[in-house]
Amino acid sequence: MIVNTTQGADRIVLDSAGKNTDEAAGVVFVGRISEGREQVNYRQQDGLTINSLGGDDSLLVDDTAVITEINLGRGDDAIVIGIVPTILDQGNRTPEFPDGVPVADTANMTSGNSTPLTVNGGAGDDFFEVNHNSSNLFLNGDAGDDTFFYQHLPGPQEYVR
Ligand SMILES: [Ca+2]
Ligand SMILES: [Ca+2]
Ligand SMILES: [Ca+2]
């Protein structure tokens, strides 16, 4: 399945369908909620390709259901892979963190990608943020001054002072 968005600045969110597997394996949201975003449900697909085309596009990958390729195209695009909320570990208080050290809320983090994911930045100064990935991830900045930001928040058992 191929999804081509617009030459403008698109907002795109990828997710799995979670428990609604009778309806879909995965879902693609296009547009901001305030602007009446579109939703594409898919299942029984071999692969998913997203072409966000021109414009400064903004993408969030919470999960994937099939092998996925994302082509960000021209423009200064930004993509975030996975969301990891933080909670305060109240059993571990320090002078710097009197209410508890912030740790990864692993119960509420998103998968990022459950299937192999390739992201091609294309031309422009693109920004890649990886918070959590659950399968192979291939990031290609391509032309431009690209930034790769890898954030690993240790869990409660892993915290190192
Ligand atoms: Ca676009
Ligand atoms: Ca780009
Ligand atoms: Ca680039």
Concise summary:
This protein has 161 residues and is mainly β. The chain is 0% helix and 38% strand. It has a 7-stranded mixed beta sheet with strand order 4-3-2-6-8-12-14, with no helix packed on it. Strands 1-5-7-11-13 form a 5-stranded parallel beta sheet, with no helix packed on it.
Protein traits:
single chain, 161 residues, mainly beta, 5-stranded parallel β-sheet, 38% strand, globular, binds calcium ion
Summarize the helices and strands and which ones pair or pack.
Layout (H helix, E strand, L loop, with lengths): L1 E3 L6 E6 L9 E5 L7 E5 L4 E5 L6 E4 L5 E5 L6 E4 L4 E4 L11 E4 L12 E4 L6 E4 L6 E4 L6 E4 L11
This protein binds calcium ion (3 copies).
Describe this structure in words.
The protein has strands at residues 2-4, 11-16, 26-30, 38-42, 47-51, 58-61, 67-71, 78-81, 86-89, 101-104, 117-120, 127-130, 137-140, 147-150. A seven-stranded mixed beta sheet has the order 4-3-2-6-8-12-14, with no helix packed on it. Strands 1-5-7-11-13 form a five-stranded parallel beta sheet, with no helix packed on it. With 161 residues, the protein is an all-beta fold. The structure holds calcium ion (CA) (3 copies).
Element pattern in H and E: EEEEEEEEEEEEEE
Number of domains: 1
As a percent range, the share of helical residues equals under 10%
Low-confidence regions: 155-161
The distinct ligands, each listed once, are: calcium ion
Count up the helices.
0
Strand portion: 35-45%
Total E-strand runs: 14
Major sheet description: 7 strands, mixed
Molecular shape: globular
> What is the straight-line distance between the termini?
46 Å
Computed CA radius of gyration, to the nearest angstrom: 17 Å
